[in-house]
Amino acid sequence: MKVSDILRVKGNTLFTVTPDEPLAVAIEIMAGKDIGSLVVMDHGDLVGMLTFREVIVTLVKNGGQVGSTTVRAAMDDAPLTCTNETELDEVRRMMLDRHARYMPVMDKRMLMGVISFYDVAKAVVDSQNFENKMLKAYIRDWPEEGDTAG
Length: 150
Fold this sequence. Notes:
Largest sheet: 3 strands, mixed
Order of helices and strands: HEHEEHHHEEH
Number of helices: 6
Shape: elongated
């Protein structure tokens, strides 16, 4: 299974913010859309990722206030990325190694979508459920000994 399989099911709704946007505005967008991340784009290029993790770290650093902090000051400026062709097993390994919950999907320099650890876990569970169902159907239809075709 590849990343493209997840995006096909998930859809391609993207939420982005610019690095110079006030962090308070980004937090409002995240809360209003009920999302855990925003892709940070500058002049069409991916320059970072803002997730609830970076927001919390910034809040702790600033004594619970965002003040005039910009997205640029809080974002992860070296986010982990993958492509549509990246295998799901590789994505899982990458996300686990970096403790990343969100990963932008890129086609060269073009943003194709964002997948979350939840999306990956759901795809794995759905795939295993389908496989289990097929195996059970196969076993249920197993021919009895002595049955011969022909």
